[in-house]
Amino acid sequence: MERGMRKPTVEDYGRRLMRVVNTIWQDPTASYSIEQLAGIAHFSPFHFHRIYREMMGETVNATQLRMRLLYASRQLAQANDIPLIRIAQRAGYQSSAAFVRSFAAAHGMPPGAYRRQRLSHIHSQINQELGMYNVEFRKLDTPIHLAASRHHGSYLKIGEAFARLQLSKTALPVDPQQVRWFAQYHDDPQSVAEAELRSDACVEIKAGGDLPDELARTQIPAGRYGVIEHRGPYSELQQAYHWLFGVWLPQSGEQPANVPVIEQYLNLPHNTPPKDLRTEIWVALTA
After folding, report:
1. Are 73 and 160 found together in one domain?
2. Cα separation of 181 and 135, whole Å?
3. Cα(188)–Cα(192) distance, rounded to whole angstroms?
4. End position of a domain, from candidates 82, 106, 127
5. Which domain holds residue 200?
6. Is the pTM of the predicted complex or chain greater than 0.70?
7. What is the count of structural domains for the chain?
8. N or C terminus: which one in the chain shows less Cβ crowding within 10 Å?
9. Which residues contact residue 45 at a Cβ distance below 8 angstroms, ignoring those fewer than 6 apart?
C-alpha cells in the first residue's frame, strides 16, 4: 500500500502547495503568518515549512523576497520619478533601510545606484552596436521534448507555472543527471494586452512516458537557432530582446522562423543572486 500511495500523495502535496504559491504571486507584498499559509495548504503549522522547503527547494520567506525584489527592480529600471521609499513600500518593506539592505544583498548595489545604472543604459541604447551580445548559431538535429505548464498573463509571473513543474518533477520522465529548464513565449508583450499573453514553463523530458493531466507535451523543433546569453535579473531581459530583434536581426541577413521565442535558464533564481542569473534567448531561423 505504501508504494501505491506514493505518487498520489506527491501530487496531492503539490496541488496544496500551489495554493500557497498562487497566493504569494497574487500579492507578494502582503504579510502572511505560518498559520495562514499552512491553512491555505491544509498542512499542520508544525510541518508546513519543512514540506514547502523540501518540495520547492527554498523557504516560503525566500520565495516572497524574490518576488518583492523582482517587482522593485522592474520599477527602478522603468521610472525615475517614483521615490525610493514608495517603491520600498510597494514591495512590502516598512522602511527604506530594510529595502536598501535586501536589494543590495541581491543585486550587488543599492537601489539608487541600480536605478542610475539602468537608466543610463536605456539612454545609451540608441548607440548600440552589433557587438553588444555574441550570437551563437546552433543547429538542432532532433527536437527537444518538453513538459509544459501553460501560463496566461504577465511574463514576470511565469514563476507560478514553474512552481507547478517543480512540484510535478518527481512524476516526470526527466533525466536526473541533466535537468534543463526552458520557457516558450508566444506573444510580444509590447503589442498584446498583458492579460492575453501566453507562455509555457517547460522542463526537458524523455520522448516517452506519461505526464500529469495539468501538463502538456511540447517540443523545441529541430532547426537553426540564433542564441544570445543575458546575465542579470529577469526584469532586465527586455534590453536583450531589444538588441536581438531591433539591432542584430535586421542587419544579420537572417529571417525568423515560425517558432515561439525560447529562453533557457542556465541557473535558477532560488539559489542564484539576480545579478548572476544566466538566461539564453533563442530565436529560430529559417534554413
Report:
1. no
2. 20
3. 6
4. 127
5. 132-285
6. no
7. 3
8. N
9. 34, 35, 38
